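Help!! Second protein's tokens look totally different from the first
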Amino acid sequence: MTVQVVILAAGMGTRLARPHPKPMTKLVDGRTIMQQQVDNLRAVFGKKLRLTIVVGYKMEQVMEHVPDASFVYNENFDQTNTSKSLLKALANSTKGGVLWLNGDVVFDPAILELLRPHMAAGKSFITVDVSSVSDEEVKYTVGEDGYIKELSKRVPQNIALGEAVGINYVAKQDKKALIKRLKTVDEQDYFEGGVELTVKNDDVQWAPVDISAFYAVEIDVADDLIAANAQIIEAKIISRISK
């Protein structure tokens, strides 16, 4: 069965202050952020992977970097946020669920192995890290049923259960509702706004999947890049020792 995956890479990434799209930023191992994402996806999903990348800012660089992917163009990349990029990707997807990730996430490929059974079960989910709760990040709470109740940067730090990681999955039966809600959110909203609306208005159940046993770093500022590189170095050392 084909595994549909979307990488959101249309943004300008102004906070990192690079002259190129943020996913093209080099990591300590010589790969770009995007290349490590693609490598991870191919290693786990192999020939079943159907990869679509949403491009915008300096899109030629991204397209040349991963020439065998499919691309969706967000022509309003400088005026919209991830909600509209995801909307375009989902509207152009085929039948079935879609795994999507922000184009600035550096992560352990073992996370994808953890997520495979959840995807196979046909359940929508949000990956979360319960080991950290930063006021600047997207945070979440759950309802009495254990599913996501709130998902935004506005969630008070004192009631948040953890942070959203930026790797998520919408199941086949929930995709139509998410597309509908992404159409209604503000141009500058993150896709989490659409997810929240499906919870409140469509009774969609999004399971929080804890991946805090593995590393996953969203690169927003220079310190994030330093943290991600440290994780990559540590992983390589552990790999050498275990051989």
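Here's the second one for comparison:
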Amino acid sequence: MDGGDNPVPQTVDLAADFEASGVAEVLRDLDAELTGLKPVKQRIRETAALLLVDKARRSLGLATETPTLHMSFTGNPGTGKTTVALKMASLLHRLGYVRKGHLVTVTRDDLVGQYIGHTAPKTKDVLKKAMGGVLFIDEAYYLYKPDNERDYGQEAIEILLQVMENNRDDLVVIMAGYADRMDKFFSANPGFRSRIAHHIEFPDYSDEELLQISTSMLSAQNYMFDDGARQAMSDYIAARRMQPHFANARSIRNALDRARLRQANRLFAEAKGPLTADDLSTITEADLRASRVFAGGLDVDRQQAAE
């Protein structure tokens, strides 16, 4: 008996618990919304299995501590890290490991102040907003700047470490960025490495996956490629990958935005009568091949942020 009132169950049905939790829906959404990323999706499923078993153990009265759920997402920009973090927040909420299931995304500027006494309140305010959910720290390695004696990033780091340890039953922290820089960051700040149990690497998308992503992005906005444009997009991906500042799906999204701009200008220049829905919805080969990428130039928004 449990406390003399409620009987402790003798068995559990993990399959039934899986369906009842809504985790299956989260995993289906992840598959539907993100192309590729098989190793990432597998790690998410493994984490879900761990938490389902932990929850089942609790229901049988087996003593257990809350598992450490802080994570590190490493990979190049545009590989889906923010999207996966959002799904992870939903998964953790459905399984009862966070109260709210919301995602708070921040960078160094949201945590570190410019003068003495400014950092602590900024960091604590962010943590207060994130409690009950997931805090996603993008390009986390920028918190640590040992070469600058007047930098206040270390103060934010110390507050984060304390909260990650003392509030791990009410907050999950995901730190993200380039793999090599994150390794250096963890080496310089071993307190983070000891508190992060799950390290998930996000691979770059293949050319074929990026072509599929481009088609999905257009479809979501009621656009489509004609036959020539699809081949042009394939050629664009291969050429763009070889240039600086390539950001996987983000570079593809930027390229499509510029293709739509060219299409709109082409329609205005060429239109001499009524236009059909297909006219307004079709990206042609010319809309893509006008990119400077095909002339060896750089046709890209240079702003980058790890995703």
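Reply: Different proteins will give different token patterns, so don't panic. Confidence is low (pLDDT under 50) at residues 300-307.
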